[in-house]
Each structure stands twice: as C-alpha cells, then as structure tokens.
Specification:
Structural class: alpha/beta
Strand content: 25-35%
Order of helices and strands: HHHEEHHHEEHHEEEHEE
Radius of gyration: 17 Å
CATH topology: Rossmann fold
Number of domains: 1
Helix content: 25-40%
CATH superfamily: Vaccinia Virus protein VP39
Keywords: Methyltransferase, S-adenosyl-L-methionine, Transferase
InterPro entries: NNMT_TEMT_trans, SAM-dep_methyltransferase, SAM-dependent_MTases_sf
CATH architecture: 3-Layer(aba) Sandwich
Strand order of the largest sheet: 3-2-1-4-5-9-8
Family: Belongs to the class I-like SAM-binding methyltransferase superfamily. NNMT/PNMT/TEMT family.
Organism: Sclerurus mexicanus (tawny-throated leaftosser)
Protein name: NNMT methyltransferase
Shape: globular
C-alpha cells in the first residue's frame, strides 16, 4: 500500500498530468480512459438536481477535468488535496502562470460535449473564477479538512481519489463517511471510481490502488448515509502498463 507520506515525498504532478491527461496521439488507452470519464462527468453534472451554491472537490490532485462540467452548475468551488505539490500545481494553473499544464485540448473536448467547442476560453475563465480556495485534506480523518471548518456544501465530487488513499475496504467505508460530513442533507455526492484496479504507474513509479467492485462501492456509499441515484460502469478493455483498471464506476448519490 502506498502510504500518504510517499505521495507527499515523491508524487510528481507534472509527470502524472503528462501521462494521463495530455490527450496525445500515441496514447489511445489513456485517452479513452480520460474521454470516458469526461463523458460520465458531463452526464452526472447535467442532472437537474446536481447544482447549487458550493461544490467541494475532494482529492482534486493537480487536475481540473472533474470541474469542467461542474463549473456550469455551482457558484463556487473549493478544491481539497492531501499533497502539497498537487495543490501548488493546481494553483499555478488557476493563476494562469507560465509552465502550468495545458488543459486546452481537454477543455475543448468538454465544450464539444456541451455543444460548442469554441467556448473553451470562456470555460477556463469560469473555472479559474469559481475555485475560491485550495485546501489540504486527509480523507482518513473524521474532519478531513481539520483544523479548517467549512459550511456544508451542496455537492461533493471525488474522482479517482479514495481508491488510492485507502488501504482496505473498511478504510474506504470510513473515508466515505468522513467526506460525507462535508455535504448538507439533501446534497449530492458525485463519484468516479476505478474498479478492479490494483495499481497505476507513471514516471517509473508504481502507486497502489484498492481493488473495488461496483457493489462494494455502492454499499459503502449507502452506509455513509447516501441514497444511490445513478450508478453506471464503463468497462475498460485496454491493456496498458500504466494501470490494470477493469472498468470505471460513475455514481451520483443524495444525502
């Protein structure tokens, strides 16, 4: 199991982004993984009830892809991640600094899903304006954002986070309960979780992943006080050495 301190010491956000989010021609498998997830997020954030004032992104990593559809339906976004360098990398993009990762191809893809590829610059601006805070969090703690406290949000989104942060199913269940405290009653949880995966790798480093089945994730979500409203699996048939994922679960639940 890849412990938290390994992430803190040796997770390289630039290498991670380049491996999994650069949408380049030679990466059919990784591109498919990304585009499937973007389609799922587009679908989930198009649901009428998934909207409101505040969205909290739990385990954002150095990425913004999970906010591209979401930003149309929430007034403000708070991004949380454990790793200092991930938060710095995200802030670099938010401030439009030189050397920040180029998300334009991904943003254009999402704009195309929404019906107008040419709105990409506007969407980037919207994300930059709406992300109000980038804070440290630890999903294994009862209050994941201690010592900070935030008013409960209308929605929390968590993509590809808990399965990397939790060493076993009981820890995963408890992490879901912990992040569930960040959302108000009647609010929503939007999740993208890999299934059947034991590792992902990039930059000659291997990170562990908790091998999950669909029914285990659904049971954990329900045990955390949520009612599952949508739960769909996209099979992932591509064989590549950077991960052994079997499928991706897209899930929406109401507290």
């Amino acid at each position: 199991f890849t412990e938290a301190d390994v992430y803190q010491q040796s997770f390289n956000p630039q290498a991670y982004l380049k491996e999994f989010y650069s949408m380049s021609d030679g990466k059919e498998g990784v591109n498919l993984f990304l585009t499937q997830n973007l389609k799922s997020l587009h679908k989930m954030f198009s649901l009428d009830e998934v909207r409101g004032g505040t969205l909290i992104d739990v385990g954002c990593g150095p990425t913004i892809y999970q906010l591209l559809s979401a930003c149309e339906h929430f007034q403000e976004i708070i991004a949380l991640d454990y790793t200092d360098q991930n938060r710095r990398e995200l802030e670099k993009w938010l401030r439009n600094e030189e050397g920040a990762f180029d998300w334009v191809p991904v943003v254009k893809y999402v704009c195309e899903l929404e019906g107008d590829r040419e709105k990409w610059a506007e969407k980037q601006e919207k994300v930059r304006k709406k992300v109000k805070q980038v804070l440290k969090c630890d999903v294994t703690k009862a209050n994941p954002i201690a010592p900070v406290s935030l008013p409960p949000a209308d929605c929390i989104v968590s993509t590809l986070c808990l399965e990397g942060a939790c060493k076993d199913l009981p820890t995963f269940c408890s992490a879901l309960r912990n992040i569930g405290t960040l959302v108000k009653p009647g609010g929503h949880l939007v999740m993208v979780t890999v299934l059947g995966e034991t590792y992902y790798a990039f930059n000659k480093q291997v990170f562990s992943c908790l091998r999950l089945e669909k029914h285990e994730v659904e049971a954990a979500v329900e045990a955390a006080g949520f009612e599952v409203k949508l739960s769909e699996v996209q099979p992932y048939m591509v064989k590549n050495e950077c991960m052994d994922c079997m499928g991706v679960l897209a899930l929406v639940a109401c507290k």
